[in-house]
Specification:
Layout: H1 8-19, E1 29-32, E2 34-36, E3 48-50, H2 54-68, E4 74-77, H3 90-100, E5 105-109, H4 115-123, E6 135-139, H5 148-156, E7 160-164, H6 179-191, H7 195-204, E8 211-212, H8 219-226, H9 235-242, H10 248-256
Parallel strand pairs: 1-4, 4-5, 5-6, 6-7, 7-8
Antiparallel strand pairs: 2-3
Length: 261
């Protein structure tokens, strides 16, 4: 969830209010750094505006806390990059350190072919001997595993690791032609499960993966995704999946061409 995802925080807050779950039952997180500008129109040229400034951090945290209050437990830099300068902005980093000394976990999310470089830069960041970040959320899937070694380093350093886009924005779960889908279907038949469960199980098999996000949009998708918890992939399955790896440049070029929906 993030400030730039339309009314996502409002939806979550209303759901939490209805459920009445005790505090601490769920890890409630959001992200700052992008401002939503599309006004619910898919066809607009610009959907969100990126700004990793101190002013944006302070403004969006107030907006998020207005909706989620003390239930907010994880606050992440939305798509940190070397180009945005957020990892070199001492004012922003000092603010994140201060927030982390309160009741918030502070993290960052990464995207793009330079994820590993960004993460290693973040691992080295210190402000007066203090590390701002305790978690990372990164894209890893059987097509794009290039950040895996850096995630292992983060995990070894005590960071929590959250994996997003394990289904490659739905590309790995969609029916249709293509070598990757054919391989996933063959493994799904061998293990008597679904294609999405195979892709998620491959992610869960990584020893550094603490949380794997689903991204399900329907109850049927959620049920299928959850079945990954009971899928144990064999060495031959993992060997077949290893053959699907694309270069980061190819993967992210295709991802950037996907339509908004």
């Amino acid at each position: 969830m993030a400030r730039s995802y339309g009314l996502a925080e409002q939806f979550l807050a209303s759901w939490l209010d209805r459920c009445g779950l005790p505090d601490g039952t769920l890890l409630v997180g959001s992200k700052w750094g992008y401002t939503y500008t599309a006004d619910w129109q898919i066809g607009v040229a610009v959907h969100e505006v990126k700004d990793h400034s101190l002013a944006t951090l302070r403004r969006q945290l107030v907006e998020t806390r207005r909706l989620l209050g003390d239930r907010l437990s994880l606050y992440q830099v939305h798509s940190a990059t070397l180009e945005s300068g957020v990892l070199d902005d001492r004012a922003v980093l000092a603010e994140l350190v201060a927030l982390g000394e309160g009741n918030l976990q502070i993290g960052l999310t990464t995207s793009g072919p330079r994820q590993a470089e960004v993460l290693r830069r973040a691992l080295a960041v210190e402000i007066d001997g203090r590390q701002p970040f305790t978690t990372v959320q990164a894209t890893w899937n059987v097509l794009e595993p290039s950040v895996g070694a850096a995630l292992a380093e983060a995990h070894a350093a005590g960071w929590g690791v959250i994996v997003k886009e394990a289904l490659a924005n739905g590309r790995l779960a969609q029916p249709g032609p293509g070598h990757a889908r054919a391989v996933l279907r063959a493994i799904a038949r061998r293990r008597t499960t679904t294609v999405d469960a195979v892709a998620l199980a491959a992610t869960r098999a990584q020893p550094w993966a603490d949380i794997v996000l689903s991204g399900a949009a329907t109850t049927a998708q959620l049920a299928s995704n959850l079945s990954a918890a009971s899928v144990e992939l064999e060495p031959d399955d993992l060997a077949d999946l290893a053959g699907l790896v694309e270069t980061p440049e190819r993967y992210w070029a295709e991802r950037s061409a996907l339509p908004w929906n």
